[in-house]
Amino acid sequence: MPELAAFQSCVADRMFSAMPLSCQTELVNRCRGNWKLVLRFLQSVHQAFFSVDTPKGNVQVTTGKYHTLLVEDGSLYTCGSSICGVLGHGPEITQCGALTRVEFPLGLSVAQVSGSHNHAALVTQNGEVFTWGDNSSFCCGHGEVGCVIFKPTRVEALKGIFCKQVATGLSFTVILTRHGQVYTCGSNSHGQLGHGDTLERPIPRKVERFSSLGPVVQISSGVSHTMAVTEDGTLYSFGYGSNFCLGHGDPRDELQPQTVQAFKRNNIHVIRVSAGDEHSVALDSNGYVYTWGKGYCGALGHGDENDKTVPEFVAVLKEHRAVQVCARKRKTFVLSDDGLVFAFGWMAFGSLGFVNRGISDKVVSPQLLETLKGYHVSQVSTGLYHTVVATNKGLVFGFGDNERAQLGQDSLRQCLEPREIKMRDILEEESGIGIEIV
Which residue in 99, 131, 354, 382 could disulfide with 121, CB within 3.0 to 4.6 Å? Predict the structure, then answer.
């Protein structure tokens, strides 16, 4: 009976039903014909990229340049540096030493959040988009208002459009609607907004090309490039191409979404993607991982530092069913369906989490993160020099640089070994005193 129930759940799953029959068969075979394992894989992919269902409610973690954002049961918490108001606590707060709840309009519940360098965006459960931070490039989507926005503010231009995901780049924002349409705003110097030109957009504008390409199911933003996965498993990329992170085989900028042909030619059905600073990582329907772009410090996981102009299979991980890929500056994380975390690239002040490595070492091939082996990790996000993970029990751990309290700890500069991050109200309850915010 449990196997039958798992089979029925898989068949009803939208991601599974969108796969070609050949891909469905391959996934089932990879799971040894066990439908419960297939279901675990599908559910883990969904949770890793949106929110994790835990005893504490739905949890999502994301990292910006020097800060951390956490959604727990519809509430948003932030900590770290608040340059340009990116923490959302107002102009008087320049740094938060513990995860602290962001004031939000009564009755609204946060569904998903994205943090970049100096601005952030979120989507509520009822599909509204809020943005805040540095709007000098109009990336917050509030029109030609170049001032800093210190608290989450509704994007009125999207009123009446139900949205489900946001992705923040260096100075631009990408929004995905419930019906699979994509809107973009902000800086567009390399065509990262996808409108066929390099004109900045002060308010979100629909990327018309996707109207004829089928519904988009997931988006990701790098520093100056954008990736999008459509329901039929096609990967599109556009924007800055000089570091090969678009995956088209040449260093050209693309002003509109273009198909990453390497996947199409090999009948690879992509289900998720992560756009890093100088490289990109994709996940296919079998749980296999592919990387391309700049190979600095081993960020591509192929055992060397060579660049890859098109996607290349990460062979070391072939025995593991990956459910999440996460790329940032010169480093990559891969999460498997059994809760294991693999990391490679630049240690960057300890942000890979290996306690037996120097803070600037290179890890050129995927290595298991032994320090988290005792937990079932369900989600991972990495910033410039720090990393945060969430477990299936709702625990949140951070490691790496803590110079600006981005790990929610006031008492240390850096942390090589994962340390639990608690929210401000829990800390106050345990200590009996308030936490000072400077």
Answer: 131
Compute the distance between CA of residue 41 and CA of residue 131 in angstroms, rounded to an integer.
32
Whether this model's pTM surpasses 0.85: yes
3-state SS class at 406: coil
- 413 phi and psi, to 5 degrees? -90, -35
- Rounded to an integer, what distance in angstroms lies between the CA atom of residue 278 and that of residue 262? 19
| Residue 40 burial (CB count, 10 A) | 17
Q: Are 254 and 205 in contact (CB under 8 A)?
A: no
For residue 320, tell me if it sits in a domain. Answer: no
Instruction: Provide the domain limits for residue 116.
Output: 52-214+403-438
Supply the DSSP symbol for 423.
Answer: B
Residue-wise DSSP of 285-350: TTS-EEEEE--GGGTT-SSS---EEEEEE-GGGTTS-EEEEEEETTEEEEEETTS-EEEEEE-TTT
- Looking at the DSSP assignment, which residues form a beta bridge with residue 292? 280
pLDDT in tens, 223-241: 999 999 999 999 999 999 9
d(CA 101, CA 89): 8
Task: Reduce the DSSP state of residue 134 to 3 states and report it.
Answer: coil
Placement of tokens 């299936």 in the chain = 392
Calculate helix-pair angle for 2-12, 35-49, nearest 10 degrees: 50
Q: How many domains does the chain have?
A: 1
Q: Model confidence over 341-400: pLDDT tens digits?
A: 999 999 989 999 998 887 778 999 999 999 999 999 999 999 999 999 999 999 999 999
Please give the C-alpha separations between residue 396 and each of 41, 62, 76, 184, in angstroms, as whole numbers: 22, 11, 14, 31
pLDDT given for residue 31 in this prediction:
97
> Which CATH number characterizes residue 193's domain?
2.130.10.30
* Domain presence at residue 370: no
Q: Which residues, including other chains, have CB under 8 Å from residue 190's CB and lie 6 or more apart?
A: 198, 224, 225, 239, 240, 241, 253
pLDDT of residue 434: 40
Residue 403 CA: distances (Å) to CA of 37, 54, 380: 41, 30, 20
Tell whether 276 is covered by a domain. Answer: no
- Determine the Cα–Cα distance for residues 281 and 243; give it in Å rounded to an integer: 14
Which residue in the block uniquely carries the two structure tokens 């409108």?
195
pLDDT the model gives residue 437: 40
By the 8 A CB rule, do 237 and 259 touch?
Answer: no
Tokens describing residue 35: 């439908």
| 322 vs 354: CA distance, rounded Å | 20
Domain presence at residue 181: yes
